[in-house]
Amino acid sequence: TTVExxxxxxxxxxxxxxxxxxxxxxxxxxxxxxxxxVVCSGRALRFDAAGVSRKLDRLRAHRETLKTKVTHxxxxxxxxxxGLDPASTAKLDLLREEHQxxxxxxxxxxxxxxxxxxxxxIDQAHAAGATVVYLExxxxxxAPGSSKAWNRRLSNATRGVLADxxxxxxxxxxxxxxxxxxxxxxxxxxxxxxxxxxIQAPDNHKPANPWALCGCGHSADRDYSAAQRIAAxxxxxxxxxxxxxxxxxxxxxxxxxxxxxxxxxxxRPAASRDKHRPTPSRPRRREASRVPGFSPAxxxxxxxxxxxxxxxxRPAGRTxxxxxxxxxxxxxSHTFSSNHxxxxxxxxxxxLGRGFHHxxxxxxxxxxxxxxxxxxxxxxxxxxxx
Length: 386
Fold this sequence. Notes:
By secondary structure, this protein is α/β, with parallel strands linked by helices. It has a domain at 14-48 and 117-262. It is built from 7 helices and 14 strands. The strands form 2 sheets. Strands 1, 2, 3, 4, 5, 6, 11, 12, 13 and 14 form a 10-stranded mixed β-sheet that branches. The protein has a 4-stranded antiparallel β-sheet with strand order 8-7-9-10. β11 and β12 (249-251) form a beta hairpin. The chain is globular, with a radius of gyration of 31 Å. The two termini are 21 Å apart.
């Protein structure tokens, strides 16, 4: 379906997203502020796929083990004039088939992860009213000691599919997707531009990568700090946005702008807790009403167990028990019937998180208020697709 391309400039609200190791995407909503500054919200949007990443790592390790065994048997077959025996030949065929299955599993899981993250990012932009999404361009980064082609293959394993999926879904929702230079996004401070100091935690200054600290007073998560800097570069350089030969929008020049965070007000509780007046009385809880028909006489008539009269010795053997009826004031016996139906254990929805996989947790969507007090026109329908 032919759609009209989204404009590359003139955006008043944007989302900047940063790649991460455990947290696949960390995004922040930003707007142009006064005096050539960028105002970012204090709420970080995260798509945490650590569980799926660990699964992909295990599958890659298993694939390398299978490839090593296949290579070993192929060298044995090449060194023998008569070839391998039938048992080794059957083993080699089985290893090759298993290697192909593991490779297909890695491709399918990575593709599903990329499209799920892309749907989540576009839904967040649609819910926040953003018209552009800024991503860092990792193809211009070159690791020390590696070639540009090899670094491109490493960085585009899953992130390349994710970037293409974001561009595809952004076209459908009229959201522009622009890449910005990635150099210095994690090492520079979004407020003053000085070099950041990476530590373990705000209360633990051991050198590590999770937390970013600056002398100007900036203290935030490393990925969240980089997302602010990416959004600032995109909004400050949106008038220099061009398209490359493949038709992808990109900002080639690095233009940094200071970032200011919005002040979020904490809502006061409905009931006042000040000590200027006596504490109001709390409503008493209603006592649990007795269910009619659960008297000892009624239970004895129903045949669950004899009515308790006085202490007697327990009869020998297993007595038939009704698990659905219980005498008030007594404990349930440990004896269970053999025909009891067991249901499969299911973890609660809040623990599983939101996403295509039960090991993916992401920030839920929040609908913003419209100009007339209603919700934003157009419901986020991408997240409901499978």
